[in-house]
């Protein structure tokens, strides 16, 4: 696959806006990557080899995946991030745009390579990630424009944003603007940030309307072992809504008024890549559409489950069509009525 010179021109130049901006409902800020998936048998021990029987390239990045899900749910979505000026960037940007995501404020910088993630996937669908973040970490605070926050209703960020400068400082600038404009802030933590960016993550907790994480991250941040203690701890830190992902076991959701534990939705798992990102998309859609907390979690569980039925993430992640197809085959579940009302508008 080759690209013409026109194909690799930056979508925007730093400090030079060339597109008419459509104001987003959701602003998503995080890494934009290409996932290189390899289907293997057992995961090898140190020093051993593993032979792949399948290899696939898919656009990815946790927040980019969530943006794609929101775009496919017909939410006006803006992606903020940084890529290189290379074939990888072309693939990633095309996937976002094809899913309805506005990429006017994605910076393309020729000095860096677009992020690449190598993902061995074992026969049970579980994946391990080896990440090269590349251009992602080089988004500068000066690239965060106040203009795109004008009519935004939520800012969603990744914990990975806090690992390196200048992306870290750009993230704090985005948070500052969101706070000034009273825009709710959502955070999906991630395992490595919970190990390496503890101070930053703990300091942002009081600003969060939504926190999405797994028990691994909760344990590292708060030293807790149960979801009950995790929920109690994060609410005490000032988080308004906590969503704990539990994979095939579903999720636990809580705010100051109530707590819910929702079972997972049985799916034939092919690959778990992007499942947590799709879950985030469901929670954000629910918040933006004033769904009840159980409806938010049910949609999030469904999107996360549907994501495991495909090989890879990016543009293959589920949207309105996949959700409606599933719900209409399971109409006996009452909670779907509330979700359908919003999806079929």
Short description:
With 345 residues, the chain is an alpha/beta fold.
CATH topology label = UDP-N-acetylmuramoyl-L-alanine:D-glutamate ligase
Largest sheet: 10 strands, mixed
Overall average residue pLDDT: 90
Output the structural class: alpha/beta
The best one-word shape is globular
Q: Going by CATH, what is the homologous superfamily? A: Ribokinase
Indicate the percent of residues in helices: 25-40%
Poorly predicted parts: 1-23
The oligomerization state is single chain
Query: Quick one: CATH class?
Result: Alpha Beta
β-sheet strand percentage: 15-25%
Q: What is the domain tally?
A: 1
Description:
It is built from eleven helices and 14 strands. It is of the alpha/beta class and 345 residues long. It has one domain: Ribokinase (UDP-N-acetylmuramoyl-L-alanine:D-glutamate ligase, 3-Layer(aba) Sandwich), CATH 3.40.1190. It is 33% helix and 19% strand. Helix 3 links the parallel strand 9 and strand 10.
């Amino acid at each position: 696959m080759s690209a013409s010179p026109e194909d690799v021109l930056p979508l925007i130049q730093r400090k030079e806006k060339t597109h008419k901006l459509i104001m987003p409902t959701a602003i998503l800020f995080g890494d934009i990557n290409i996932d290189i998936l390899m289907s293997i048998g057992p995961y090898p021990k140190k020093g051993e080899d593993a032979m792949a029987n399948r290899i696939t390239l898919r656009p990815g990045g946790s927040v980019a995946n969530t943006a794609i899900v929101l775009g496919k749910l017909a939410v006006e979505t803006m992606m903020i991030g940084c890529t290189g000026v290379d074939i990888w960037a072309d693939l990633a940007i095309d996937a976002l745009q094809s899913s309805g995501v506005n990429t006017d404020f994605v910076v393309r910088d020729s000095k860096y390579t677009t992020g690449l993630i190598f993902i061995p996937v074992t026969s049970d669908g579980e994946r391990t990630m080896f990440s090269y973040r590349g251009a992602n970490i080089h988004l500068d605070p000066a690239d965060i424009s106040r203009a795109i926050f004008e009519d935004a209703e939520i800012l969603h960020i990744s914990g990975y944003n806090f690992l390196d400068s200048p992306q870290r400082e750009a993230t704090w600038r985005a948070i500052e603007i969101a706070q000034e404009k009273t825009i709710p802030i959502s955070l999906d933590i991630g395992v490595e940030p919970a190990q390496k960016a503890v101070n930053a993550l703990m300091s942002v907790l009081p600003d969060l309307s939504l926190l999405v994480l797994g028990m691994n991250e909760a344990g590292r941040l708060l030293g807790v072992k149960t979801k009950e203690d995790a929920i109690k701890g994060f609410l005490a830190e000032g988080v308004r809504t906590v969503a704990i992902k539990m994979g095939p076991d579903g999720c636990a959701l809580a705010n100051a008024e109530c707590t819910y534990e929702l079972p997972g939705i049985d799916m034939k798992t092919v690959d778990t890549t992007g499942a947590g990102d799709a879950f985030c998309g469901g929670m954000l859609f629910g918040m933006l559409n004033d769904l009840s907390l159980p409806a938010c979690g049910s949609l999030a569980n469904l999107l996360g489950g549907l994501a495991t039925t495909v090989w890879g993430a990016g543009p293959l992640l589920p949207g309105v069509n996949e959700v409606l197809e599933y719900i209409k085959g399971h109409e006996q579940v009452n909670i779907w009525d509330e979700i359908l009302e919003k999806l079929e508008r």
